[in-house]
Structure formats: C-alpha cells, structure tokens
Amino acid sequence: MAGRDLTRFKHFKQQGISIKFGRFSQKENDQIRKNVKEFLSLTGIENAEKLLFTCRYPEEKETINRLKSEFLFSEGIPRPWRLIYYRARKIFDPNNYKGRYTKEEKEKLKKYHAIHGNDWKKISEIMSRSNLSVAMKYSEIKSAINYGPWTKEETQKLMHAVEDVIRKRSKLEAEKSSSEKSRRNLSIDREKLYQKLPWTEIETKVGTRYWRQCKQKWNSILTNKMSRGQQLYKGTKGLQAKINLIKRYLSIAPTNSLNASLFRDVPRAYVQAKFYRLKVSCVPLWQRKTFSEIIDYLYDKKLPELEEKLKKKKQPLGSDSPSASQQKKVFQLSEIFDSSEDSDN
C-alpha cells in the first residue's frame, strides 16, 4: 500500500495538488464510482461487492486479489489508497442500505452480541448488515435509554464527561495547579471542543442516553456557550440565519464540503443539523434530489420568500456571518464548563 501511495503522491506533488484527509466531497465520491466501474469493466469482475468484499466469495478470492494487485481504482483522488478503499467499501456495501432495524432484528442483535461479544464482523455476516451499522445500533439499544427532554442531572453528567475527555486529550490534567481558579482558566482551541470526540465513551459515562443523543445535546449546549446565549435561530435572527445558510451552502455546492469558518462560532454539526431541518421542511421529495439540486431549489424558491419576510419586518439583509478573522479562536474552559451557570437549556 505504501509503495502505491508513494508513486501517486509524487505525481500529485508535481501537479501542485495537496494530499487530502477528512470528509470526502461529492466530486470524490463520484470519481470513486467512476473508477470502480472502469475497474470492473477492465478486469471482468462481475460487481463491486466482489471487488470490495472478496471474503464473501472464498472460491474466487485468489483471482480477485491478484487482479487487485495489478490494477488500481484510486485514479484522480489525492488521498491515501487505503482511505479510498475504505470509502469505496462504504459506498458499495449493499448491507449499508437495509433501512431501519425491525424489532426482531434488534432482539437478534442482542442475542448475537451475548454470544460473540464485540466481534462485529461475525455479527454483521450473520445479520447481513455492515460492521459499523451493527456496532452503532447495538450502542443505541444495549441498555435502557431515555428520550425526550434532558434532565438537569443528565446534562451535568454530559458536561462532566465531555470536560473530562477534553482535559485528558489536551493533557490538561497533567498541569497541576495550586488553585481551582487558575486550573479552570485554562484555554483550548475552539475546534477541540467538538471535533472527533469519543462519543461512545461519553455515552457510557452519561449512562441514560445513546451517543447520537449526547452529540446533539452537546452541540446545542456548545452553540449556546459560544454565542453567549444569543438566540441565533429565533425571530428575525432566525430568518437572517436561514438566508445566510442558503447563500453559504450555495457557495460550496460544487464540492459539498462545508467550511465551518463561513459560519458563526458554532459547531459544524449544529449548522448541518439546521440545514437538514431546512431542506426537510422546504424541499419536496428532497430524498430523490442531489445536493446541488436541493441547493438550487432553496435558492430559487425559498430564498426570495425568506428575504421578503425579513424585508416586511424591516430588518437589513446585508448582515452576514462574521468572518473567520472575527471568530473567537480560543475559549477558556471556565467559559464552557462553568458549573455556576444553568446548562440545561
């Protein structure tokens, strides 16, 4: 794998193209589909499942692996080969598109976990679901989970769990201080407050909510803290925020890659959640539309309506999100985790 990447990376460097990591863009996903289609045509392998999930076809494994070593499907994508391979597996795995789990499937998942433990590969084969799917679903159903409004106790547990994780990740616990005041005034970069947090670990510490609930609640709390309690999506501010959201997403439509610096001091996931609500409530048959088609509809149909509503309320249309240079880059932990404030909002 390393040898393959070395040759490819040299080629990209000669073209002045940087190697990418992180979320795949729509353009890259389309390129993967194109490359896999050409690979299948070139090698005679019947379908993408055989190419990417060779272990499911033991009688053809040797032949397919030989073809894999001779041909590549990473053409035109400046990323490590292994990451492209993993992404292709996610795109083409038919077990990723099985819909919601039935009550019977959930009971079977509990049963198989009792037998096989965390051997998600084994369980996924039995249930014909992807490894990630069965692991995440089990995380949701393994214990009694609360729904609805969070209690003050649950919110405090979440705050403490996230604070503990962030302190450990930043190695802040090693910086012993003689006073609680100076210890709580430690600073942290804004991205570290929400990026790549270990949500399954946080879920375990909270105990009564599954990881996705914890993540959504934390994004809500963090948005409130970063915006100093301003109601960003209420009233006229809400209209302006939706207008800004559509305009900003229009600027990224060709890549489908959200630049968090285009928005306020709020977590990326919070912005994505607001956009999801907007498209679900405003775009007919949005599930059948591409990302670009959704943006075009919002821009052509919804944006004029929102601007007219805002105009009637006699509010300026020109106020956009603060620039990246205006955004607060660093927060004191006391600003985010001050126990004297009521965080259950």
Tell me about this structure:
The protein has helices at 2-14, 26-43, 48-52, 61-70, 81-92, 103-116, 120-127, 131-141, 152-169, 180-184, 199-206, 211-226, 235-252, 268-282, 291-312, 333-337; strands spanning 187-189, 330-332. The model is unreliable at 317-325 (pLDDT under 50). It has a two-stranded antiparallel ribbon with strand order 1-2. It has 345 residues and is mainly α. 57% of the residues lie in helices and 2% in strands. The radius of gyration is 24 Å and the shape is globular. The chain is built from 16 helices and 2 strands. Helix 11 crosses helix 12 (211-226). Among the domains are: 2-92, no CATH class; 103-141, Arc Repressor Mutant, subunit A (Orthogonal Bundle), CATH 1.10.10; 152-228, no CATH class. GO terms for molecular function: chromatin binding.
Gap between N and C termini: 49 Å
Helices and strands, in N-to-C order? Answer: HHHHHHHHHHEHHHHHEH
Largest beta sheet: strand ordering: 1-2
The profile of the biggest β sheet is:
2 strands, antiparallel
Shape: globular
GO molecular function, one term: chromatin binding
Domain Myb-like: 93-141, 142-222
Region (Disordered): 312-345
InterPro entries: Homeodomain-like_sf, Myb_dom, SANT/Myb, TTF1-like
